[in-house]
Amino acid sequence: MSDSLPIDDAVSSVLIGEYPSLEEALLVRGLLASYEIAAFLSDENFLRLYGGSIHSHGGIPLRVHQRDAEAALEILRVSQKHSRQQPSETTESDEL
User: Fold this and answer.
1) How far apart are CA 85 and CA 96, in angstroms?
2) How far is CA 44 from CA 16, 36, 61, 77, 81, in A?
3) For a designed S-S bond to 69, which of 14, 43, 50, 81 qualifies (C-beta 3.0 to 4.6 A apart)?
4) Which is nearest to 78 in space by CA: 19, 15, 26, 32?
5) In this predicted model, what pLDDT tens digit does every residue of 55-64 receive, in sequence order?
6) Given a cut of 80, is residue 72 above it in pLDDT?
7) pTM of the model
8) For the chain, what is the largest distance between any 2 Cα atoms, rounded to a whole number of angstroms?
9) Domain ranges within the chain, ordered by starting residue
10) What's the first-to-final CA gap in the chain, in angstroms?
């Protein structure tokens, strides 16, 4: 039983971001899932029913397990950095 995580580590979670729409929160959750990091939305069923009214509450919170928080934040940081970069100009060698 020494290989298992203590109860607090297994169930504690960290808020890694708040998103303006359910769609954006789901995209980020999908990105993290592609790295095998489980992320979850608090009250997801409520958000699916009443997502439009959540904007007045500051956004849709996305959480990960405490043990995955550092990796998740790094993935999001790198992803944001790549999305801000300008596409490079296409050269002839790229077109071939």
Assistant:
1) 24
2) 16, 20, 10, 24, 28
3) 14
4) 32
5) 556 788 899 9
6) yes
7) 0.69
8) 60
9) 13-75
10) 57
